[in-house]
Structure to design on (173 residues):
């Protein structure tokens, strides 16, 4: 069988081949875009997985720290409860506290005068300092001064054990 091909048919076939070639090129470009998007998505997923792993490690450490802090808090609560029970079991009547004053300002409260004297050494006072009564001098004039306070049940609080002599008020004009 012989087939006669005309110039118009050849032109038509060339146009079809050119269109098919153009479609193949566009499909190849589209495939390239999809491959690049796939690589970018894979890269983002790997980074997200690494970040999730890092966050998981930080969360694990935070949970360990929280557990340790909760354990310490529990121990402190037990100690506070024990001290409260001890305190409630005893009468406060006549109990004294010593307040360490630094130039007249309250610095620390101690259960005993000896504890206050010992602690002043950590604040720069010589441990062998002879503590003498400050008398009528204002507390602001003394670098370190201990004031005793005694529990007074009538007022449900502590009162100064040593009360300075009241100074007469000058007459008003």
């Amino acid at each position: 069988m012989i087939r006669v091909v005309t110039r118009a048919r050849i032109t038509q076939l060339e146009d079809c081949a050119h269109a098919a070639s153009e479609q193949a090129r566009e499909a190849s470009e589209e495939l390239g875009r999809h491959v690049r998007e796939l690589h970018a998505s894979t890269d983002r997923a790997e980074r997200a997985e690494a970040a999730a792993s890092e966050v998981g490690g930080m969360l694990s450490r935070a949970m360990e720290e929280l557990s340790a802090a909760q354990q310490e808090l529990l121990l402190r609560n037990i100690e506070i409860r024990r001290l409260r029970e001890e305190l409630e079991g005893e009468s406060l009547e006549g109990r004294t506290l010593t307040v360490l004053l630094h130039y007249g300002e309250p610095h620390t409260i101690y259960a005993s005068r000896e504890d206050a004297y010992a602690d002043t050494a950590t604040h720069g006072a010589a441990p062998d300092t002879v503590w003498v009564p400050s008398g009528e001098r204002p507390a602001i004039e003394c670098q370190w001064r201990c004031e005793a306070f005694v529990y007074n049940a009538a007022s449900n609080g502590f009162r100064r054990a040593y009360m300075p002599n009241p100074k007469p008020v000058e007459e008003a004009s």
The chain has a mean pLDDT of 81. The CA atoms of residues 136 and 164 lie 7 Å apart. The helical segments are 7-89, 113-120. The longest strand covers residues 144-152.
